Amino acid sequence: MGDKNMSAPNAPLTGSKNLRDLPNMITCLLPAYNEAENLPQVIPETYNYLKQFCNEVEILIVDDGSQDNTVAVAQELSQSYPISIVKFSRNFGKEIALSAGLDNARGDVVIIMDSDGQHPLPVIGDFIKHWRDGYDMVYGVRANRDDESFAKRAFTKVYYGLLKRISDVEIHPDAGDFRLLGRNVVDALISLPERTRMMKGLYAWVGFKSKAVSFEVVERLSGASTFRFRDLTSLAITGLTSFSSIPLKIWMVIGAIISAMSFGYGMLVLLRTLFFGTDVPGWPSLIVSIFFLGGIQLLSIGIMGDYLARVFSEVKRRPLYIIEEYQKSEDKRESDSEDEKA
Predict the structure, then answer these.
(1) 61 pLDDT exceeds 50?
(2) Residue 63 to residue 101: CA distance in whole angstroms
């Protein structure tokens, strides 16, 4: 973010034959976890940029159990800007924070972006242009991943390549949560009942006419990302188990192959013994077979257990999140104009 992102609004919005008018209200969804240092810069810049595209702006902050004074900072800023605040009773995770934000968003379109200033504002102008051209979902795609480690880049490439082959959804490997969602897309996402969520997969699953926009990630304003590699691994497993049953079905194939190999080996041993009198040493082959089959069984049980755990989580039907406090925004421009009239 920064002043350089506050340059002139995108010219293509005027003078082109668009299918849609500018939205009456835009909700900017900012999931936040320990972002007290970043909000004082992110919120004013975001509001000032968005208000040129609509009559009313809502900045929706979902506080995911922050340990700092994120909520207090947001409440102070709400005296000057139209900020709605959803405060969780504890940390539920970013995927749930995004879901809560969509549940409470009031805009005709919802723009999701990070609270740390890494998503450049001018890209939002491109989002809105494509939405007006008839796209229901416009998402940002990272131009490069130079700021990430080699291990993370390799993991991402392999994972999304695998997911593309075994699931019924296709997720762009360089896409994230930075995107614009039309009201119809938001309503579709709200209707999904599952508790275990990978939002990038759900964006792809609901479908609708979509458009990718390339952008360069800018430097974080302050602090460090709290997203850890184990969080990435957990999210990857969620994606595999939520959008594909192949990990379950593959063990039927593996079992059939092992059974065929075992039968063939057994017939070979039997024939060699009957016709050639070959003495087959039993212990080495027996021990290897036991350990091999034992490992296969434990691995397959673990995968089935993960699916079963997710079924258990679904049937309990606990709420996705618990809101400790909710503060609804007011359009500050309306109140300002009323003050001027008075």
Answers:
(1) yes
(2) 10
More confident residue, 231 or 103: 103
State whether 31 and 110 are in the same domain: yes
Whole-number pLDDT of residue 188: 92
Calpha distance 101→177 (Å, rounded): 12
Q: Which residues span the domain enclosing 327?
A: 3-228+319-341
- Return the pLDDT at 183: 92
Look up residue 196 and give its two tokens.
């275990």
Name the CA dihedral angle for 176, 182, 186, 191, rounded to a multiple of 10 degrees: -120
Strands 56-63 and 25-32: parallel
The domain that holds 330 is classified in CATH as: 3.90.550.10
In contact, 63 and 87? CB cutoff 8 Å: yes
Instruction: Taking residues 309-332, report their average pLDDT.
Output: 76
User: Residue 306 has which token pair?
Assistant: 């993960």
Considering the domain architecture, whether residues 252 and 164 belong to the same structural domain is answered as no
